[in-house]
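Quick one before lunch.
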Amino acid sequence: CHTLQFIGRVTLITIVTTGGVFYYITQKDRHPGQQLPHDPSKKNLVVVGSGWGSTAFLKNLDTSDYNVTVISPHNFFLFTPLLPSVAVGTLATNSILQPIRYLTRHKNRKVTVIEAEAKSVDPIAKTITFADETEVQGEVSSTTIPFDYLVYAVGAQTQTFGIPGVKEHASFMKEIQDAEKFKRRFMDCVESAGFPGQSEEEINRLLHMVVVGGGPTGIEVSGELHDFLEDDLKSWYPELSSKIKITLIEALPSVLPMFSRELIDYTVSTFKESKIDILTGTMVKEIKEKSIVLQMPDKSIKEVPVGLVVWAGGNKARDVSVNLMSRLPDAQKNKRGITVDDHLRMAGTDGSIFALGDCTSSQYAPTAQVASQQGAYLARMFRQFAKRDALLEQISAARHEGKSTESLEKQFTKAENLRPFHYSHQGSLAYIGSEKAIADLEFFHHKFASGGVATFLFWRSAYLSTLFSLRNRVLVATDWLKVKLFGRDLVRD
Ligand code: FAD
Ligand code: NAI
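Model of the flavin-adenine dinucleotide complex:
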């Protein structure tokens, strides 16, 4: 009896203490203190975008050295790796979003956040023009501001190759709105298939879900769709669920070219078990309202009825980036994205514009890993720039006073010596459905490939720990638990 009382007390004290610490951390986070105001003697640094590259940069930047302004059409950071989970309702929308002010309000010096879309950048005059394109606008909704430094990380848009009907009839999987639109359309197809009097042919059309693109986005969307079907739709739509068909279409001979052969084979066999059809060597030629036109491996053309098409055909440069590159035609010849040097300086500029992440064309894959490492690297560079600029001022003051500048000049030379960006690949991970994931990892220069349920647990824990904040981690973990207990939400909002 005494032992039980003792255990009870210890448990209670542990719960109260943990709760107290948790409460203290969250409350401290919720009420950021005073920030230094902008200082006219500091350089103006404009950060464009609030994605992986920009947020890694802002997280690591010492803002006391600069007057920082962030411009992005979204006032939040989106954790893209879990976007397909939002598309099928495994996670709630807000669980993978983090308002950018939750980051900027904790910085030493004030950071101005402007919800607007960059329209053009003038690399010669060093100005940026941006506009508020949201539903509600004030009297002023477009303006131009100057910058001393520009950190440009607007990401990329979905590549459609100008294929007819893609923009009009397919859903994308890049922005948070894409995931929401996909879920709405998917549930709409299922509910419409259940409408009384629907012919068998029409039911089969409405329930045919096609995913275009066998890159990681397409694979993850197919896997998540399969889970939704198996875990939830089979229970709530027993008369329709067996008719739902998922087809993945890929133009190349194989899916997931960036993964090792054994993981590609593992994914293909898992999809086979999950009854997801993979059509490789098959090119989408057109998407119509109710069908998709395919060029089959033998070059024959086939038109297949579809209810919903998800387009995950890769990346292309955003219009604002194309416009910026066109202003420096001699240095910016690569149509895929902005050309930068080893220090992420945009080629053709005087070193005041830096570009990172998916908006650049480099030897690196367009991944979050690359963008965030580039952001962190650039923040270190900016610390060095601030040091260099301060030394320059000290040298000029010393010269003015007739003092020796030798030691300062040595320090300046050291500060001028900038290390190039070095990418450290941590491996590739992807979810393939049925609580299985694949991972190509590298430990101490040794490659290691794994796939299955254990890798799925690793995938979850890796992404849970990479999430932006404690708030996101709690929300995502709670969503996973909620889905285990109650299943996914079927509401079509
Ligand atoms: P983004 O993160 O796309 O950020 C661009 C920012 O610019 C956004 O805030 C956007 O709102 C803003 N912006 C856009 N236009 C303008 C404008 N005109 N003016 C101002 N701001 C603008 N990578 C991985 O490494 N691992 C993964 O598991 C993974 N999973 C993914 C899953 C999905 C579904 C997708 C779509 C991508 C995934 N990626 C993954 C790739 C990864 O998301 C990108 O490589 C990464 O987002 C690139 O970061 P970025 O900062 O360059 O661009
Ligand atoms: P992707 O470029 O990797 O794949 C697009 C695929 O679509 C290509 O294989 C292409 O052949 C195919 N395609 C294009 N047009 C087609 C057509 N008309 N018909 C049939 N197939 C067509 O694009 P994705 O998957 O969106 O990924 C973009 C980037 O984001 C990649 O660098 C990827 O590594 C990264 N990413 C990483 C993830 C992860 O690590 N888990 C998850 C999602 C994206």
